[in-house]
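Example 3.2
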Amino acid sequence: MAGISGHATHASHLNLLEVTGRAATHVRDVADPRCVLHVRAAEGLIAMRNAARTDGIDLDVVSGFRDFNRQLAIWSAKFNGSRALLDASGSEINRADLYESALIDAILTWSALPGASRHHWGSEIDVIDAAALPAGRQPQLHQAQFASGGCFERLNGWLDSNMRQFGFFRPYATFQGGVQPEPWHLSYAAVSVPALEVLSLEVLAEALEGADMPGKQTVLARLPELYHRYVLAVDEI
C-alpha cells in the first residue's frame, strides 16, 4: 500500500482499548502526509490527497491519531491553566473566573475528554491546505480561515464537493449543543461510525475511572450528560 508502513489490512471495528485510545494496535504510520492513522482511513486520505493535488491543493494533516495519554495531557494543561482556554468564539478565557464544572464545559467546547476523543480511533484528521498557508506562519485552526476570505476558503469548498467520495465527512460541521464547529476536522466513516457504537457510556466511564485526571470526580458525576452532549451529538454522514 503506497505511503503506508506495512501492507496488512485491518478490520474497521475497534476493541475497547483501541476505541478509548489505550492501545495503538489499529493504527499505522503514513509517510505522505506524515501522520498516524487507521489503515483504512489512510487509504482514503492518500487517494483524497492525490485528487486535491491535481486541483492545486496541498492537503496536509496537522493532527491524526492521538492516544489516551496525549489527550490527558491536553486536558490537564487546559485544566491547570498552562494551555490557553478558549470560548465559543475562540477568545481566551480567564480560568480563574470559572468554577470547576464551568471549566470542564469550557475545555469540552474545543477538546475531548481522554478516552472520548475521536482521534483515538485513527479515523480523524485535522487538515489544512499547506499551499495556501501564509509564508512563515504555523498552522492555526480557526473557523475564520475556512470561511469566505480565509486562507483555506478554497480547501473548504473543495472538501464540501469531494470528501465524501473518499469516505470522509465532517462530524462537527454544525453546532449540536456541545463541540463548536470544526471545518478542518474530517472523519473516515467506515471506521468512526462503528467506533462510536463501541464507545458506550460504560466503556468511557471505565477508562476514566483508572486515570489520574484533574476534575475526574466532577466529570464522572456528570458523565451521562457530558457523554450525550459532547460525544454523541455530532453531525451525521
